[in-house]
Amino acid sequence: MTDLLTMVSAAGPLAGGWGVHGLWMRRRLSAARRDLLSGLWTRAPFERRAARVLARRPHTAVVLVDLDGFKALNDTFGHAAGDEAIRATAASLNDALAEKRGAVAARLGGDEFAAVVPLEEPFTLPWLLNALHGAITSPFTYGGRDLTVGASIGAALSSDLTEKARPAGAAMLPVLLRLADEAMYVAKRAGGGWNYPGASEPRCTTTAGRRTGRPGTHAPHHREAA
What we know:
The protein is built from 6 helices and 9 strands. By secondary structure, it is an alpha+beta fold.
């Protein structure tokens, strides 16, 4: 009995140590999946979570946000000011989605952000987009100055998709991202703001799976045979 108690008492600190180590590892793994600057999810974990939301909720909005005037802000006030703009945008996203249970937000890269938002009532989407645009374009403080960036926001709604354009499972997310990207591009060409056209299927041509004309989507050149 004494030997058993000795073994248990000796194993206690070891088990506790492994528990602490496991918690530390889980936190490290979670941090690795998040963008270091904004604290939002990076693309891969965002896509996995977004696919699960789309599979479970019938009315889910996919939102793309692209900052306007971000390069000018960087050039004028420095990259640290640009970093603060990224953090402020992430905070605005988190605040706008705080009461939307199941919503997922991400920084896709550079000054581009995305969110997947389940809605109880689809007609509330314009109010959400208007509030989000207002929050992102509100002044933020850097170096004792109030600075601003603009934003172009596009959105698509899963329940708007036609049967033809509605793939099953995880394949629905790329379709909705394309629709949101098309809507965002229209908003950007108009000088910013938000755009939700209620599109039921993609309209623009694509290159490498993305809207033609988007940076990085130029068609490859083919050399003719001699």
